[in-house]
Design a protein that fits this description.
heterotrimer, A: 197 residues, alpha+beta, two-stranded antiparallel sheet, two-stranded antiparallel ribbon, 5 strands, 51% helix, B: 254 residues, mainly alpha, 6% strand
Chain lengths: 197, 254, 197
């Protein structure tokens, strides 16, 4: 293997790993290659990635090598991660969503009386994430806001399809399929294998 | 298959030596193989010869203790039928007479198209074989102690039920299935809703672990579907394919 | 933000995600930037990474953008991951995937009629691995499930979209060949067939 290929392979391995990869580890993967040559490659790679000045670079961290995002994009990354996290809601948030969904339009006080705890924090987060919205005000003393769910909520929970319930007969059918659906040995040995990465 | 380590006991009778047929993926695949082996024109299959060889293969498979699925026998019967049709004397030769082989040839050609397409799929850079992606750090993505809500639709619910059933069906012993179940769907529904209400939430699979029969299992699942329809419970999943959680959401409706 | 910084940020985000990141998602992260400019950056990035020829590159996959290892290092990567190098889908599974990919939405019976063999075992395995999914029910007697491929399918096979599937030989073409190609029955002298090899 020439040096270019070796460097590419090292890059690939470090990339796939996620965790820092030590020189020792790399030496194990390339038993035919001198340790000094691998060290040399790593040194060059560190320089090359620094010079390229891309959004990711190779870092020498805690005795290993790891790809990291370049400093400077952290705000955008946080912004992105926040959006990815949009659908990851806490248990508390779930409860509040459920209460609002079934009792809407509903006030914060009503939600709290069901949950028995303060919910203002959670409600603000849900408003921010567009899962609930203010539907109006309740005509009682203090005129509190009334909350309800949004279209985004329906989307997240895939609610439309839940109306399409199967009949008893169809469930029977499923159970029958369960029995006949056991993979015949002659057909398919896939189950015993590892899952796809 | 008869090879045994000296000193080792006989093979467990519960593990029959049924071997996967690696060479052929089904009867049509076997037929295509035979046609190719005999260098026949697919549009002009010598049915008698192919039928004979096909049946020889099935016999061989039996001798070798390979499982011969019913699908192979279906095609064998079809071949025999075509063969006999072709042997019938033709009193009047009609120009438009259908070739008894036409239907089979059409099927073989269609199968061939998808067989080729399957190979073509592997022609690219296959993830996990040729190329790899970075497994993102769960920490990087801030996935911690938070339940990720994924849209859980009915189909995934049914899939989860089926997977669970597949995995655990040995637990519902056959002799339990004939126990006469007197519980009705309404009664079961009441039981299920009480259980979920008490717990607040319950793992999808845990709901079924106490089921003692297939009937119980199915009726419990039906109750669950009914409760979803009534908006009394909700199903959330932590990620696609992972276990689902049934969350009680209340029986008050506006 | 100048274009260089935008490109760097986009790279960082795609790297952090691991999963393919869509243009839509990026547009959300950069609300002040024209969609066309983001698209333009992505195009340039695809080219740049290809030209750099490093151990990782940017791929346009399954409706999004994803960093992947360059092909050619797979032996060393599997060695590193201590995994046996094998592609874990049987031929039977591949055939089922191909039929479903091209004919979707399609029922199990339709798949089986093409393969001539029971496919329920394979279909269950593919469902479990999220390579296919139930898309709904066919409006015929028995209301059988209709199956189709998932984004995971596109990711595994490195496809941008379903439109990116290799073209299939036309069945019409075959039927035509069939009509002209099959000799009349009278021409087959069954009795005089060549001996078996």
């Amino acid at each position: 293997m020439n040096q270019t290929d070796l460097k590419k392979s090292i890059e690939s391995i470090i990339f796939v790993s996620g965790e820092p990869v030590s020189l020792d580890k790399l030496a194990q993967v390339f038993p035919d290659i001198e340790r000094s040559e691998i060290r040399n490659c790593l040194k060059e790679l560190l320089n090359e990635w620094e010079e390229m000045g891309r959004g990711i670079y190779l870092a020498n961290i805690s005795g290993g090598y790891q790809f990291r995002t370049a400093p400077g994009s952290s705000d955008h990354i946080t912004n992105f991660l926040k959006r990815v996290k949009k659908f990851r809601l806490s248990r508390a948030a779930l409860e509040v969503i459920a209460i609002i969904a079934y009792k809407q339009p509903v006030t914060r006080i009503e939600v709290e009386s069901i949950r028995g705890v303060d919910c203002s924090g959670v409600i603000n987060v849900l408003l921010e994430r567009l899962i609930i919205e203010i539907k109006g005000r309740k005509e009682v003393i203090g005129k509190p806001f009334l909350y309800g769910t949004t279209g985004e909520f329906l989307e997240v929970f895939g609610l439309k399809s839940l109306g399409d319930l199967p009949t008893l007969k169809e469930i029977d059918e499923i159970s029958q399929n369960l029995e006949t659906g056991i993979p015949a040995i002659a057909e398919e040995p896939v189950q015993q294998e590892e899952p796809l990465p | 298959m008869k090879n045994q380590i000296p000193g080792a006991g006989p093979l467990e009778p519960k593990e029959p030596c049924v071997i996967k047929i690696n060479l052929f993926e089904g009867p049509l695949d076997l037929l295509l193989h035979l046609i190719k082996k005999n260098e026949m024109d697919i549009y002009d299959i010598k049915v008698a010869a192919i039928t004979e060889q096909y049946i020889e293969y099935l016999e061989l498979m039996k001798v070798l203790n390979l499982e011969v699925a019913g699908d192979y026998l279906v095609i064998a019967a079809e071949l025999s039928l075509i063969k006999s049709k072709m042997l019938l004397p033709k009193p009047v030769i009609e120009e438009d007479e259908d070739d008894p082989r036409a239907e089979l040839v059409k099927r073989l050609l269609e199968y061939q198209v998808y067989k080729d397409a399957a190979s073509d799929l592997l022609g690219g850079e296959v993830l996990g074989r040729d190329v790899f992606k970075r497994e993102p750090d769960r920490e990087d993505l801030g996935i911690e102690e938070e339940v990720e809500l994924v849209p859980v639709n009915l189909w995934s619910l049914i899939e989860a039920f089926r997977e669970f059933y597949d995995r655990r069906k040995e637990l519902w012993a056959e002799d339990l299935t004939f126990i006469i179940e007197e519980i009705t769907l309404d009664e079961k529904l009441e039981q299920v809703v009480n259980r979920i209400r008490t717990l607040g939430e319950i793992g999808f699979e845990r709901l079924f672990t106490e089921c003692k029969s297939k009937f119980d299992l199915v009726i419990t699942f039906l109750s669950l579907l009914e409760l979803i329809r009534m908006d009394t419970v909700q199903i959330v999943g932590e990620s696609p394919g992972s276990s689902m959680i049934i969350v009680y959401s209340g029986d008050n409706h506006f």
